[in-house]
Design brief:
The protein has 182 residues and is α+β, with helices and mostly antiparallel strands. 34% of the residues lie in helices and 41% in strands. The protein has helices spanning 3-22, 28-45, 47-55, 116-124, 141-145, and strands at residues 58-83, 86-113, 128-129, 136-138, 156-166, 176-180.
């Protein structure tokens, strides 16, 4: 084997270990605690997110997603679907990718489900892929300037927060959200 192949194999193993370590199953109590803390931090720093919470039929919270990649990459995290202030179900968020990428990072995201059809889609699918089904708008600074609770027209709005690490870009497109038992 060449030196480059050895490095590639070693880095791939490190990536697999990093993702599998982060994928240790959390208890329902841990997910609930982390989800509620993440929401409170988001609401404290983002007025629009706090006002969207009042207009949402449900909120899907993933407090900690770990993403790593070296040509091949992936992400994983667990979260909760909260309806009327109570946890209704638990979900995981998984994605895979390949291409020009290297690094690792963690972040959280919250999806405010505005319409009944968005909530129904999450409930009835065995795995909901972001980008397929209900329209999810990623709220960044540009979108936030033109959005208010009176101008809502899409099914769901997502906020990404708490990015840490060294990896360029975050996309929810292609993330698969599936119900899990806790």
């Amino acid at each position: 084997m060449t030196y480059a192949k050895n490095i590639f194999i070693a880095l791939t193993l490190i990536l697999a270990l990093a993702i599998s370590h982060s994928a240790e199953a959390a208890t329902a109590k841990e997910i609930d605690r982390d989800a509620r803390e993440a929401l409170q931090k988001l609401y404290k720093h983002n007025e629009l997110a706090a006002s969207l919470a009042g207009k949402s039929k449900a909120v899907l919270v993933f407090p900690n997603i770990v993403k790593a990649g070296l040509i091949f990459g992936g992400s994983y995290g667990e979260g909760a679907l909260i309806t009327a202030g109570k946890t209704e179900a638990y979900y995981n968020s998984v994605s895979g990718s390949w291409g020009l990428q290297a690094g690792a990072q963690s972040y959280g995201y919250v999806v405010f489900l505005i319409t009944d059809s968005a909530v129904k889609s999450v409930h009835k699918t065995k795995g909901w892929e972001v980008g397929v089904g209900p329209t999810v708008v990623i709220v960044d600074e540009g979108v936030a300037k033109n959005l208010s609770t009176t101008t809502l027209k899409d099914d769901a709005y997502a906020f990404i927060f708490g990015q840490q690490g060294l990896m360029a870009g975050i996309s929810l497109e292609g993330s698969k959200i599936s119900k899990i038992k806790r």
